[in-house]
Structures are given as structure tokens and as C-alpha cells.
Amino acid sequence: MDSARSDSFMALKILVAGGFGVGKTTLVGSVSEIRPLSTEERLTEAGRPVDRLDGVQHKTTTTVAMDFGRITIHDDLALYLFGTPGQDRFWFLWDELAQGALGAVVLADTRRLADSFAAIDYFEHRSIPFVVAVNCFDGARAHRADEVARALDLDPGTPVVLCDARDRASCKEVLIRLVEHAASSYEARLSANASSV
Fold first, then answer.
1. First-to-final CA distance of the chain
2. Which among 61, 132, 159, 173 could bridge 40 via Cys, Cβ 3.0 to 4.6 Å?
3. Which DSSP string do the residues of 9-41 spell out, in sequence order?
4. Distance (Å) of CA 191 to CA 25, 113, 125, 158, 196
């Protein structure tokens, strides 16, 4: 890479968050152009009392630190994707992962929508722009984006996108929507600051 290109190169950090077993590792893996770094470990008997497997009884592994992937938009812009662990006992990692993030994707499963509340609260309280991406699993009842927004009691303007975490094109649409939302949130904050001076 020449020095002119390296001076203008920008990497944007995006978090992929949500409840346990919602598809975060799958989303990062399906959209990443590199082989994603994954910290998946097998679920054990010792974790059974603290790991809620309601609705995901078939799950045999869990993310214990993070997932990492990358997608290059063009020569001078890349998105770095950090998938957060979904279990409460690993939430101490979220503050480190969230530092410097442009925004977040909160992946949701309508069969276990309440599992999304903690992630939504986390980003709302820290004023980190986010979109809710509803992972449309096979056999799950379909819901419209506006129905999901109402059920989650989202602030007006928070985008809700229907997606398939296994499909690269679908995941790219989610990321595009997040970048657009983060840009408009940033512009709105600049405007508000300018008018208060």
C-alpha cells in the first residue's frame, strides 16, 4: 500500500450484538471477506445452570470473547465487524468492544424478542447508533418491521431491517443501513451542537 493510500485509509468499527444463539457468529461469518476469527467454545455441563437454552436447545457452542470479520467497501474504506458474546456472564467484554464503534447491529429473533432488550438498552444509554436486524429463521412466524419496532418500543427513527444472517447480500444490506443511520445520527448531533452555541 503506498503512503498516499495509507493516509486516507479508514476502518470503521461495527458491533454485532444480541441475545444468545440469535445468529451473530453466522452474520459475521457470512459477510466477512476474510476467514473470521471466532472464539466459539463448546457448551459444557458446568455452564448449564447459567446458560439459558430456551428456544436454542440444539446449540452446542457459544462465543466466549468475540467474533471478528472484515469487509472492504473500497480501497480506502473497510468495516471491521466485532460480534459480541450473547450470554450475560460475558457482558463485561462489551465496554471494551464498544470503544470507538461507529454503530451496532442488534440481531433479533422474533421467537425470543425479549432477549434483544438488554442490547438495545446498552446502545441507547451510550448514544451509539444502532439498527435492529430481525433474523428471519426458517419456520419462524414472519413479522413486519413496524410490528417489531413497536414490540421493542424503539425510539422513532431507529431502523428495523429484516434479514437472513446466513445470506451475504442480506447482511450487506443491514450494514449499509447501519452506516447510513450512523451518518445521519452524527449529522443531527453536529447540527444540535451548532445551534446550541
1. 42
2. 61
3. -EEEEEEEEESTTSSHHHHHHHH-SSPPEEEEE
4. 36, 34, 21, 19, 9
Q: For the segment 127-144, what is each residue's pLDDT rounded down to a tens digit?
A: 999 999 999 877 666 789
Assess contact for 106 and 130: CB atoms under 8 A: yes
User: What are the angstrom distances between the C-alpha of 166 and each of 26, 91, 113, 115, 138?
Assistant: 6, 25, 19, 20, 11
With a cut of 80, say whether residue 108 has pLDDT above it: yes
Distance between CA 115 and CA 132 in Å, rounded? 12
Alpha-carbon Rg of the chain, whole angstroms? 17
- pTM, 2 dp: 0.80
Residue 162 grid cell: 429484516
Q: Are 14 and 81 in contact (CB under 8 A)?
A: yes
Q: What is the C-alpha to C-alpha distance for residues 61 and 89, in angstroms, rounded to an integer?
A: 15
20: left (phi over 0), alpha (psi -120 to 50) or beta: beta
